[in-house]
Recover the amino acids of this structure.
């Protein structure tokens, strides 16, 4: 008997992004389940499901963004509580997967924290992971349980088409972003360019030169995330210096710090940054940032996982699966 026939679906939200969780539930025509989450005076987290989850197909929605450690620990405790309450299957839904940038040993005596987080989620009792735009594709291999890896492209591309028309060039801000940029190229039927980048430290980036023709073209810089906006701003300056008509940026996860917001506001070369609501409380900076919801994308993925259907159509334009 299929899981969808044998169990009922239950959606639960952590404290990380309740607004997105509610929008996902609205898309599915469902209600968020009742779960009590509180903190003891010493900051320990307490979780109690306030309804029966026995034999449920439970989806626990929690991005592990700032505050990363608290959101991650809360998710782990939710998973453990659901496991001990005899949920039939537990899917951890992470619209944003924290610690993804620590995916390899690039210096002596450093951890691979993304692998540690994968181990924690699995050991806590997660049966499946649903996430979006991992910083590194190989993180999927850190798990010994199924991982459904979504991309924000299907919800961002329609908005980008309005901006670039038939005169667009997709720009990878560094060599590591070329695969993502090429995927945007295919969906937008646009040109392609690469900016060569050298990272000086955690907050400073130097972009050296451009490969590709951008003169009089409308450029879109694509990346999976931004926190200091250094990579985007440095690339935008090079593009404008090489004759680009306009420059936009599109990122899946907007994690801008105070420094990043200031840098973006003080970079007139970038007309607008288009991002998603995978993380909460994004400051639109008086229109400098446009936020597009991924609730329909994640909601549809949850529906398909529950019903045992393929999620592959979600990798393409929204028109293919809506």
């Amino acid at each position: 008997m299929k899981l969808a026939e044998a169990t009922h679906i239950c959606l639960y939200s952590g404290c990380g992004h309740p607004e997105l969780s509610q929008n996902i539930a609205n898309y599915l025509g469902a209600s968020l389940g009742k779960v009590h989450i509180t903190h003891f005076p010493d900051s320990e987290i307490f979780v109690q499901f306030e309804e029966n989850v026995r034999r449920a197909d439970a989806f626990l929605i929690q991005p592990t963004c700032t505050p990363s450690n608290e959101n991650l620990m809360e998710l782990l405790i939710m998973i453990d509580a659901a496991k001990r309450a005899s949920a039939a299957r537990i899917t951890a839904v992470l619209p944003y997967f924290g610690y993804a940038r620590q995916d390899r040993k690039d210096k002596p005596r450093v951890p691979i924290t993304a692998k540690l987080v994968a181990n924690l989620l699995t050991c806590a009792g997660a049966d499946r992971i649903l996430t979006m735009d991992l910083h590194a594709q190989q993180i999927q291999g850190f798990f010994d349980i199924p991982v459904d890896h979504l991309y924000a492209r299907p919800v961002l591309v329609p908005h980008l088409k309005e901006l670039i028309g038939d005169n667009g060039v997709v720009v990878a801000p560094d060599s590591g972003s070329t695969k993502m940029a090429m995927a945007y190229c295919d969906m937008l039927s646009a040109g392609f360019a690469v900016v060569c980048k050298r990272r000086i430290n955690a907050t400073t980036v130097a972009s050296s030169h451009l490969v590709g023709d951008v003169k009089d073209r409308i450029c879109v810089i694509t990346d999976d995330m931004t926190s200091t906006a250094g990579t985007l701003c440095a690339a935008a300056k090079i593009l404008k210096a090489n004759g680009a008509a306009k420059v936009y940026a599109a990122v899946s996860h907007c994690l801008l710090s105070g420094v990043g917001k200031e840098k973006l506001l003080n970079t007139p070369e970038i007309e607008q940054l288009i991002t998603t609501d995978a993380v909460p409380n994004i400051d639109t900076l008086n229109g400098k940032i446009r936020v597009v919801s991924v609730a329909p994308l994640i909601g549809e993925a949850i529906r398909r996982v529950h019903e045992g259907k393929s999620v592959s159509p979600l990798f393409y334009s929204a028109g293919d699966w809506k």
Remarks:
- The chain has nine helices and 14 strands.
- The longest strand covers residues 191-199.
- The CA atoms of residues 127 and 295 lie 22 Å apart.
- The mean pLDDT is 93.
